[in-house]
Amino acid sequence: DTEVTQTPKHLVMGMTNKKSLKCEQHMGHRAMYWYKQKAKKPPELMFVYSYEKLSINESVPSRFSPECPNSSLLNLHLHALQPEDSALYLCASSQPGVGSYEQYFGPGTRLTVT
Amino acid sequence: SQQGEEDPQALSIQEGENATMNCSYKTSINNLQWYRQNSGRGLVHLILIRSNEREKHSGRLRVTLDTSKKSSSLLITASRAADTASYFCATERGADGLTFGKGTHLIIQP
Fold it and tell me: Could you give the 3-state DSSP secondary structure of residue B102?
């Protein structure tokens, strides 16, 4: 199974809502990532988890809170978002470390903040 | 910050023609990867070339890497309508995570 799944596919939320994005993989990968992609722009790295520990946080605002409950799951908790946070949120996984490993991406969650 | 810069930003060719996209980057790399993205969906890994490699092939894809010029190219031969997508180069920064270039939007005209 080389699939990364993400739920929900689409999410519309108000600025006072709390919601969560979920990501799951069963490839045995021990590195998982969140990327944010605005329209017509490349993906930008937000967070990296390696062996279920947060290893990289690319200066993301605290209204985004990642969580890695186990080696197969990755969540992104959202609270008090701004309209400019509307984007496609992509999850990816790979083998960890510097070893020239490809990343496997999920289909993304398209988030709209109203 | 973005490491790679793709050229051209958009490319439209006829089906059957070859498509060439270029990528330049700024810092030293462990490897360079190319990904395809269809219309706002997830990215699909196409090919990875290590810093000590100069050329790599995978089916209709040919990738070159010139570390002295900090540049790479992706050639898609005998293009098909299904190749219509955005193509991104990405560099690994040394401790997980990828930095993507701005991307080339490729349109294959039937």
Answer: coil
pLDDT in tens, A58-70: 889 999 999 999 9
Of A32-36, A99-103, B12-16, the range with the lowest mean pLDDT is A99-103
Are A11 and A75 contacting, i.e. CB atoms less than 8 angstroms apart? no
| Other Cβ atoms closer than 10 A to B69 | 9
Strands (E), B1-110: 5-7, 10-14, 19-24, 31-37, 43-50, 55-58, 61-66, 71-76, 85-92, 98-100, 104-109
Q: How many helices (H) and strands (E) does chain A have?
A: 0, 11
Q: What is the pLDDT of residue A58?
A: 82
Taking contacts as CB-CB distances below 8 angstroms, the residues of chain A near B96 are 31, 33, 48, 50, 55-56, 94, 96-98
Instruction: Give the tens place of pLDDT for each residue, B50-74.
Output: 999 999 999 999 999 999 999 999 9
What residues are paired with A94 via a beta bridge?
A31
Between CA B110 and CA B32 the distance in angstroms is 31
A103 → closest Cβ in B45, B50, B101: B45
Which of A58, A95, A100 should one mutate to test binding to chain B, selecting the residue with the greatest count of B CBs within 10 A?
A100
